[in-house]
Amino acid sequence: MQAKRVTFPGKITPYLLLLPQVAVTLVFFVWPAGEALVSSLFAQDAFGLGSTFVGLANFAALFRDPAYLEAVGVSFLFAFCVTALAMGLGLLFAAAADALGKAAGLYQVLLVWPYAVAPAVAGVLWLFMFDPSVGMVARALRTLGLSWNHVLDGGQALTLVILAAAWKQVSYNFLFFYAGLRAIPQGALEAAALDGAGPFQRFRHIVLPLLAPTTFFLLVVNLTYAFFDTFGIIHATTGGGPGRATTILVYKVFRDGFEGLDLGGSSAQSVVLLVIVVALTALQFRHIERKVSY
């Protein structure tokens, strides 16, 4: 049987269909990245009235700055914790929903709702729950003999933003993991059960390998989310404090550029952040993607 092929009536039609996506990529990704790269090579005055070419001096200053190196460490710790927590909970909830079968409709809707919440709103929600004075979670912790004050304790503040960022991303992971679980052939699981494999063994040796492509995709997406898309949560929850305890790289770009008015330095930070995320993605495709069976 000959495979059907779809052909366009004119040679220009495929390019017209690609044009909107190419335009969005150029305007919102390539152009800003190019502007940041050019700006990182100049030292600009605080009022934007003049600039002086300094070459790589802005980049050299970054790696001599203890505050920037601290932000790098906080960013990697934050990204690892958010990715692990969000993906772990997403897989757990997806497995629970899959086990319920058709009765999981309401359960699925409730789990998807958090994804519709704006990052700033999610940050404020968790801020109120953990408020040292009136927060319901902070009060519950005090009844257990545990003190909570993320305004003064940097470790608690970092824990708070990790929980808020992971909660915001769990719904996204749940959708993909649930779709992956529903696509697994039930015959393979039933055959393993007849062979005496328990639920844990079936999950470990059948479900997880078949979910490897989904897991790899979500790993890349979650790391990118943790490095770039958590600005709103941190800004609404801790503002990067106390001190620099929750100042990750993307928030330091904002703080130095918009509050400190160091436009050249913040542009250099943007370029370094982009390079870090691209390098992490490339490493994942080079070393982890090879172990994924499609």
Automatic annotation (TrEMBL):
The keyword Transmembrane applies. The chain crosses the membrane at residues 12-34, 46-63, 75-97, 109-130, 206-228, 267-285. It is found in: Cell inner membrane; Cell membrane. InterPro entries: MetI-like, MetI-like_sf, UgpAE/MalFG_permease. It is a multi-pass membrane protein. Its main location: membrane. Residues 72-284 form the ABC transmembrane type-1 domain. Keywords: Cell inner membrane, Cell membrane, Membrane, Transmembrane, Transmembrane helix, Transport. The keyword Transit peptide does not apply. Part of the ABC transporter complex UgpBAEC involved in sn-glycerol-3-phosphate (G3P) import. Probably responsible for the translocation of the substrate across the membrane. NCBIfam families: PRK10561.1. The complex is composed of two ATP-binding proteins (UgpC), two transmembrane proteins (UgpA and UgpE) and a solute-binding protein (UgpB). Belongs to the binding-protein-dependent transport system permease family. This is sn-glycerol-3-phosphate transport system permease protein UgpA.
